[in-house]
Amino acid sequence: MAALMGAMLAVAVPAHAADTVTSNLGVSAVVLDTCTLNAATALSFASIDNSAPTSQAVPGSLAVVCTSTRSGISVSLGAGENASGGTRRMISTDGNYLPYSVYADAGHSSAVAAAENIYSGDVTAAIPLVIPVYGQIPAGSYNAGLYSDTILVTLTY
C-alpha cells in the first residue's frame, strides 16, 4: 500500500514549470539639430618659381552639412592669422610674408574680405553643400621658404 500511495503522489503532483518574468526595455535617442563645417579641400599652392613672375591660383572648398533643412545660413572668412592692413599673408618659418587673396569665383573677380560672407543661402538636410573657394598669390618676387596661414571660417545658422 505504501508503494501505491507513493505512486499516486508522484502522479498527482504536477511537474514544476519554469517561471517567466517580463519587463520592458526603453529605447530612446536624441538627434541634434546641428550643422558641421569642414575644409573639404585646403588652398594648397604649388612651388612658386620666382623666375616666372606670374600669379598663382588654386581651388579649394568648404563643406556644410546640417541635420535639417535651413534657410539663411552664412559662411564667412576671417582675415587669417598673419593679415596686415587688410591683406592676407602667409608667414614662413623665417618670418617672411607672402601675400594672397581669397575669392568666391574661379575668375578671381570677387575677393572675399575679412569677416565677409563667402556664402549666404540655404542648405538641404543631410546633403553636403560644397562652397568653392579660390586662392591667388599675386605676381612678385618672394623669399624662399615654407609659408602657411590659417583662416578662421565661421558658419552661422
Q: Into how many domains do the coordinates divide?
A: 1
SSE string, helix = H, strand = E?
Answer: HEEEEEEEEE
Q: What portion of residues belong to β-strands?
A: 35-45%
Give the low-confidence spans: none
Q: How many extended strands?
A: 9
CATH topology: Immunoglobulin-like
**How many angstroms does the end-to-end distance come to?**
91 Å
CATH secondary-structure class:
Mainly Beta
Give the integer mean of the pLDDT values.
90
> Structural class from helices and strands?
mainly beta
Topology:
Elements: H1 2-12, E1 35-41, E2 56-66, E3 70-77, E4 88-92, E5 97-103, E6 116-123, E7 129-137, E8 147-148, E9 153-156
Antiparallel strand pairs: 1-2, 2-7, 3-6, 3-9, 4-5, 4-8, 5-7
Q: What report would you give on this structure?
A:
The protein has a single domain, classed as Immunoglobulin-like, CATH 2.60.40. Helix content is 7%, strand content 39%. The chain is built from one helix and nine strands; from the N terminus they run αβββββββββ. Strand 4 and strand 5 form a beta hairpin. The model has no long low-confidence stretch (mean pLDDT 90). Residues 1-17 form the signal peptide. Residues 22-154 form the Spore coat protein U/FanG domain. InterPro entries: Spore_coat_component (IPR053167), Spore_coat_U/FanG (IPR007893).
Any key phrases for this structure?
single chain, 157 residues, mainly beta, Immunoglobulin-like, 6-stranded antiparallel sheet, 3-stranded antiparallel sheet, 1 helix, 9 strands, 7% helix, Spore coat protein U/FanG domain-containing protein, signal
